[in-house]
Design brief:
354 residues, alpha+beta, elongated, Cell Division Protein Zipa, Chain: A, Cell division protein FtsZ, 6-stranded antiparallel β-sheet
Length: 354
C-alpha cells in the first residue's frame, strides 16, 4: 500500500469515526429524558393496563391570576354537613306519612336506578330517632320522606322529559310506602332549572396550562418523577396524576395529564413526550386551597426542572401579566359563587358543576 493510499485510509477511518460519534451524540441528545434511578421517588415505569388516576381536562379559559397569600397561610374550613338534597339545586317533593315506615320497606320501594335522564334522583327519610334526613337505612324507622331531582349539572338543565320521569319514580315510591305527595308545577321547576343552568354556564371555569419541552422530549417516568417531587400521585388512568387536596375525600386540587398511549407503550422509557397539561376545575376545589396560585407555582417549577415553557392551549406563552389578570377574574368568580351559596369546593358546587 502506497503512502497516499495509507493516508486516505486513515482519513477515511477518522471521518467514519466522527460520523459514528456524532450520530451517537445526536441520538443521546434527542432521546427522551429519563427518571433518575438514584432519586428516592423515582417511579417504576408502569406496564400497560396498570392503574393510575383519572383527571379532568381544561375547558373554558378565563382571560387570566392575582398574587395570593403564601401557601399554607390560609386555614381550610371544615366541610359543611348538609342533607344530600338541597332546595338550592334540587327540585324536592315532600311525602307525608300516616305512620312510621321501616328502612327495609323504603329500600325495597326505591327505583332500580338513581337517575331521571341525566340528573341524579334521590329519596331521603327523616329518621324517627335522630330527626335527621338521610338515605334510608335498614333497621331504622322513618316518619316522613322526600324525593328530589337535581335541577342542573354540566349536561344541562332539567327538561320536561326528565321531570316527568322524576314524577313517575317519586309517585311509585310514594305509593309503595303509602305516602301522600304533592308535586310542584312542572313549568315552574323547569324554569328554575334553566335559570340555574344559565348561572352555572356563565360561571363555570376550567383552566388548563400546557408545559412544552424546549429541547429533548420526556419519558413518562421522567414526568412522573418530577411531578411526584411536587406532591402529585398517580392514579387509575395511564398518563394521569393528581395533586391531592388537604382534606381527605375532596377532589384533587390539580390534575396533570400526558399522552396515554405513551404511558401504555411496551417500553415506556422510550416514549417521547413533548408536552403535558396541568388543569384546574375551579368549582370543584376549595378557595382556601389557593389552587390557582399553586397552578402557577407548580407549572413554573416544572418548567424550570424539565426545561419547558408554559403556554396556553393554543401554544402561546403565558406571561405574568396574563396570569395576574386570570387571578383577578378568579377572585371575582369566587365572590360570585360565595354570594350564591355555591362556594367553590362546597357540596352544592361540586354537584352543580359535575
Amino acid at each position: 500500500m502506497s503512502t497516499l493510499q495509507l493516508s486516505l485510509a486513515i482519513v477515511g477511518g477518522l471521518v467514519l469515526l466522527a460520523i459514528i460519534v456524532h450520530s451517537a451524540w445526536t441520538t443521546r441528545r434527542n432521546a427522551p429524558k429519563q427518571a433518575d434511578p438514584a432519586a428516592p421517588d423515582a417511579p417504576v415505569e408502569r406496564e400497560p393496563g396498570e392503574r393510575q388516576e383519572p383527571g379532568f381536562v381544561g375547558g373554558d379559559e378565563l382571560p387570566g391570576g392575582v398574587p395570593e397569600p403564601a401557601l399554607g397561610s390560609m386555614p381550610l374550613p371544615a366541610l359543611e354537613r348538609r342533607p344530600g338534597l338541597d332546595a338550592l339545586i334540587d327540585s324536592i317533593v315532600p311525602m307525608s306519612l300516616e305512620g312510621l315506615v321501616s328502612g327495609d320497606a323504603a329500600l325495597a320501594a326505591l327505583p332500580p336506578t338513581r337517575r331521571a335522564g341525566s340528573k341524579p334522583f334521590a329519596v331521603e327519610g327523616r329518621n324517627e330517632a335522630s330527626g335527621h334526613w338521610e338515605m334510608p337505612v335498614a333497621g331504622q324507622r322513618y316518619r316522613a320522606f322526600q324525593a328530589g331531582v337535581q335541577l342542573a349539572n354540566r349536561t344541562g338543565a332539567l327538561n320536561d322529559i326528565e321531570y316527568s320521569e322524576f314524577v313517575v319514580k317519586a309517585q311509585a315510591f310514594a305509593d309503595a310506602v303509602n305516602a301522600a305527595v304533592d308535586f310542584p308545577d312542572m313549568r315552574d321547576e323547569v324554569a328554575r332549572a334553566r335559570e340555574l343552568d344559565q348561572f352555572a354556564s356563565d360561571h363555570d371555569a376550567q383552566l388548563a396550562f400546557v408545559l412544552r419541552a424546549r429541547g429533548a422530549a420526556w419519558s413518562p417516568g421522567y414526568i412522573q418523577q418530577n411531578a411526584a417531587r411536587l406532591g402529585f400521585v398517580p392514579g387509575t388512568i395511564p398518563g394521569r396524576m393528581a395533586l391531592p387536596a388537604a382534606t381527605p375525600g375532596m377532589p384533587a386540587i390539580l390534575a396533570l395529564s400526558f399522552d396515554t398511549q405513551a404511558a401504555l407503550a411496551e417500553d415506556p422509557a422510550q416514549s417521547a413526550i413533548r408536552d403535558l397539561t396541568l388543569s384546574l376545575d375551579v368549582a370543584q376545589v376549595l378557595r382556601a386551597e389557593q389552587p390557582f396560585q399553586r397552578l402557577r407555582e407548580i407549572s413554573a417549577e416544572l418548567a424550570g426542572a424539565m426545561d419547558g415553557v408554559v403556554t396556553d392551549q393554543n401554544g402561546q406563552p403565558l406571561r405574568e401579566e396574563a396570569l395576574d389578570s386570570i387571578g383577578m377574574d378568579l377572585e371575582k368568580l369566587y365572590d360570585t359563587l360565595d354570594g350564591r351559596d355555591l362556594s367553590a369546593g362546597s357540596i352544592q358546587a361540586r354537584r352543580l358543576f359535575g
